[in-house]
Amino acid sequence: MAYLINCPHCGQRTTDEFYIKGDASKQRPGTIGDDTMNQWHDYVHIRDNVRGRTAEHWHHTGGCRQWLVVERDTVSHEVYAVAPASSRTPGKTSATPARKSAARKTPARNTTSRKTARGEKK
Amino acid sequence: MKYSVFSLARNALSGHKNWQPAWRSPDPKPEYDVIIVGGGGHGLATAYYLAKVHGITNVAVLEKGYLGGGNVGRNTTIIRSNYLLPGNNPFYEKSLQLWEGLEQDFNFNAMVSQRGVVNLFHSDGQRDAFVRRGNAMRIHGVDAEILDTHALRELMPFLNFNDGRFPIMGGLMQRRGGTVRHDAVAWGFARGADMRGVDVIQHCEVTGIRREKGRVVGVETSRGFIGCKKLGLAAAGNSSTVAKMAGLELPIESHVLQAFVSEGIKPWIDNVVTFGVGHFYISQSDKGGLVFGGDIDGYNSYAQRGNLPTVEHVVECGLAMIPSLSRARVLRSWGGIMDMSMDGSPIIDKTGIDNLYLNAGWCYGGFKATPASGWCFAHTIANDAPHELNSQMRLDRFRTGYVMDETAHGAQPNLH
Amino acid sequence: MTSFRFDTGGLIDRSSVIDFSFDGKKMQGHSGDTLASALLANGQLLMGRSFKYHRPRSVITAGAAEPNALMEIGEGGRLEPNTRATMQELYDGLVAKSQNRWPTLERDFGAINSIASSFFVAGFYYKTFMWPKRFWEAIYEPIIRRAAGLGHLSHENDPDRYEKAYAHCDVLVVGSGPAGLMAAMAAARSGASVIMADEHATCGGSLLREREEIASQPGHEWAAETLAQLAGMDNVTIMARTTVIGAYDQCVFGALERVQKHTALPDHDVPVEKLWRIMAKACVMATGAEERPIVFGGNDRPGVMTASAMRAYANQFGVAAGRTACVFTSSDSGYRTALDMRSCGVHVEAIIDARANAPDIETHGVPVLTGAVVTNVDGGKHGMKGIEIDRGRGHENIPCQSLAMSGGWSPVVHLACQRGARPSWDEDLHCFMPPQSDPAIIASGSANAIWSLTGCLTDGARRGEQAARQAGCRTMKTPVPKARDEASHGSEAVWWVKQSTGKPFVDYQNDVTARDLPLAAREGYDHIELAKRYTTSGMATDQGKLGNVNAIGILADATGKGIEEIGTTTFRPFYTPVSFGALGGQHVGEHFRPVRMSPLHNWAADLGAEFVETGLWYRSSWFPEKGDDWLAAMTREVLNTRANVGICDVSTLGKIEIKGSDATEFINRLYSNAFAMLPVGKARYGLMLREDGFVGDDGTTSRLSENHYFMTTTTGHAAESMRDIEFAHQALWPELDVQYASVSDQWAQMAIAGPRARDVLAKIVDIDISNEAFGFLAARQIKVLGSIPAMLFRISFSGELAYELAVPAGHGEAVANAIMHAGEPFGIGPYGLEALSAMRIEKGFVTHNEINGRVTAGDVGLGKMLSKKKDYIGRMMSEREGLVDADREQLVGVRPLNPDLRFRAGCHLVNPGDVASLETDQGYVSSVAFSPMLESWVGLAMLKRGRERHGDKIVLWDGLREVQIEAEVCDPVFYDPAQEKAHG
Q1: Which CATH superfamily is domain C162-289+411-484 in?
Q2: CB atoms C145 and B267 under 8 Å
Q3: Comparing C-alpha atoms, which of B141, B139, B214, B186 is closest to residue B373?
Q4: Would you say residue C339 has pLDDT above 50?
């Protein structure tokens, strides 16, 4: 994992504040088309299970309650980037290092967060 | 050489200079009838039963590290067959039955100790769920008992009956459940397989799976190409990595599970007992250490090590269940890589590729399954068809929806 | 026994007297003593027994690696087994007991094992005890279990408190010897915030134990001055008695502070131990080095110890194991011991140097025998008489009372290796070097294989600066004081004295001898990890701190491989063992998990409610009157509610407010049934699936205005549902304009149910609630009691004419009391969870007993709630073959033919006449209640193809309790199937 996650809203926090959902590499398929059941099976059940750099959905349950995409290494446990899930297209890994991603602004319509002045300043 | 008190005495007289290696260290042959990837408990058991039950002895087990260096050597040694679902229950019961005769079968003392496994419950709802599970066991002829608090107090007076945050209302007991000396399982199967002609080859890492016209013809390894007529994968923890070599993508994530042992103490707890409010299980090894564990850390990892918050969480659960653990000291923690499947149940099946077979997805229940897993996988490979016992442990069940979700958490592996 | 205290010297306070006892014997020591030094001072050389052979043992070390001198400390709930006497500070009233012996330490019956030791070789137990089969559990295992283990752990509860805390710093310095002190100073002078932790009570490390000088003053004085300087700096925290136990990801360290382990009666307001999570930016690992014993015959006899331990006991504590000594060494460290002991007045008979050539060190007349080895020790439980040596001309004997041994040094590399990196063998330095894979963990001093004092001071300063730089500070050069160095520090590795005539121990505690490892290799256990597991070498409480490198050397020798090729076993947390108490901290007893209480908790308590734990909540379960039991109370509550009116606290439901211009669309995607057309002022029951198509949760959602919804979830899934909703918006559909907030704690919510519910509520609400004006499933924001804002929903979980009223949490109690008052003329009474549950079962409503995570909407008769016209969470996967299979279990009701027969949830279902088996299993009972209306036990069950089997007979099979009851399958709605009451 990582012991510490640099939440874009709250700053560096310990992992026990977070809930981990899992793989964030795939986009939710639609309901129309010939291959939809295959796509859905793939989306819900199949995992790349990468040995190395991976992206996961983490929820900052004990903090800003924002869903984040944490990019990290499954062998070294290094964290490369943390970004709000709402600002990210699934399937693309960002090349932004962790420190910079903290400065990334969340989109205006990401409305549920009680964004504190502290969170904005970060 | 057959192991016995007589062979031990004879060797003692000769200064123990005449013991033979427990297994050979053969060089790989050019080709085998069956190659098993993974020299852990399941892989070695598979080879053992291929030789013993099916008479297939031209078999190699390829292990990238040392024998039993994977999860068979890093678990909490518990055996039990207290499963709810019909696709699991008979399989694990078969496993328990195999455990019961294993040592005499493979002539190695693995210290199978049926000291009883108790699952505590703490609410009406949990009791109902345990009663249902207990009845699922009983209906299949598996032993199960419901213990009330009176019986529990007799058995384990040191449980927190008095000032816990959650009351202990009772427990589901399987007396035939217990513990086994884990390393000895790998060694016993390895020796048993070796004696029957199987080549157990350590330090031989599989780096590729060679296919021709769709069929597997052999594996590329750190010791060169080795041909095979059938290939079985039993590399739990690394199943995805190995399966990718054959172009298979699996419904599996790799997670780290920590386990722990305390300093050795005089006999303190006789049974295996699990907590019902948080995940915690504990037993005492014959050497005196308290062996315990809890939840997986919750994030994908191949690192074979965990972090401190999980340790704290596990210990908190332990203290909630048995307050007098407070002065025991945790000696060592370790981490194993778990194949976490999408429904928490394993896969023993054929694959889409003709002569490729898969044994994977053991989550953190693989140790107790070792003999039955090997037995069923051997059957599946030998007959090119699953046995009734593993007939529901299918790879395609996620596509069809016939899942076996013991913990009922759905397709989120870190919750199983 | 031979051990004694010198008349002068040592860093102990000879003016103080500390009383303690060992095995009931009263003894005295001084402030500054460890238990081990005090025992030696009292002539108590014999301190323990080994694990397998019960060999008499004394201290081998003076520190954390001690494998032998383990004791039970304290009494009652404070009894602590396996405490290392070398690390235990002496305190007044300390009660110590030896362990793993019977009946006494002096006369230990278990020592008989030594006689049969030729039988008890490595792994002997794998080869025997198999016949007859049942004997393992009946006879062998109990004997082995009783013989195994070390000390006793109490079953009494611990009376003391523990705490956990976080600490933050730029630079963590582990160890406070010469390198640690200089590193801390250098980092601190660079402006870094520094934590310096040391496992001992007094900081100073080796400076307290050696006779070295720094800046022309004794080392321990220089250490004290430097510590005082550091303590005066605002950016430095010194943590003595604190062991850094583990290195975790991102430079986070676990540390254990022994706050009150040096007092008999701890202050209850202060924890006895504290677990620290230290978040650092860099770490200087100045953890020192461990001196290696030499593996030779009798190297475990009381009186034999490492050379550095002998010096430490002499220099720091003023004690010695004997009045005469020999030194057996392959390193120059042994010479230092000889000289220090000599100046303490101990007669040093000889230095036996295994090397061919002696180093150029003035020994002041102590004879040096080069190319010689010790092959056995003549001694027993009361001490040594002499040693047997071999210098190539047969065995010779030298009388002596103690023996120092030094086989070279091993840097303490644990913290650098716990995250997976491996140390590497250095052929020149004869030790494993710490890995440098993590730039934030910087080894320094002897942990970095720098053996001279000047070198350690210089390296400490340099590494301290490096760490500060790593932490982002601008570094300043720190001057290094001058030290008088020892002449030389050479060593050679001697793994095993093969000509030993006595038992040569590699792992002392586990009694692994040098002969076990080649045996393991011969039998195929030749990998270091296999050899460890087969022989148990390195698996004792010291985790091989002393023996592992020797074991590796011996295995290398036996297999013909190099040391580097053999490699080490895995370094894992913890560096030294950590108590459960410390790891649990404050989260014990009733503080294991937080308590959640409804805003109506006190209201219910005042009415005499019995509460039940539901997750973190305490919920009012029933309201006993005149001491009636739950069944009588529940029956009364149901009958009163169904006949008159009842009030129930339902505040624990999850409550979520959802607003925004896309709120309707959003909710429509969350629920499986249609919500797009829900009119303002209406509530609707909704079903949520998981994305895998199984039912996740249910609840009602009300449209309070065009873009404002109020959603409820079940109590148990409140947190999960909230998280899922946040996920659905933030991760799946961030383009939707919605806002949401959990308001579960903001509202007190109560159900008012029964034929007179309307009459009661009419007295406190500000709107017309007639059936015409406020019909079934109406929902509205209103005011109660004149001015209190509220939400009123006409929903029913009881099947009665019923309302749920939500008011701000702070008003909950007042409003509930007002309702009780208003309802008095109508016979209102409270009802609890038991009655709520009985009534919902009578009505066939499902809860998580039914929707248990493995169930589809179709299984519970809600298949028609799966919309075909929209996408929603779980839609596609809910259509999988396995989820729509006609053979699936379906929700039914079951009634025993004899209504008095009680049955339990968890029964399975079997067709009459069938023998119960896996093949004949038809399903299970999910919920059971006594129905006051039907005067019968009734249940909800999941039955294979159940919906087409109403009217069939079925057997309720409870094998666990050996009960079988005949029952009839029926519709799950037992009561008022036409729904007349709720709509009335």
Answers
A1: FAD/NAD(P)-binding domain (3.50.50.60)
A2: yes
A3: B186
A4: yes
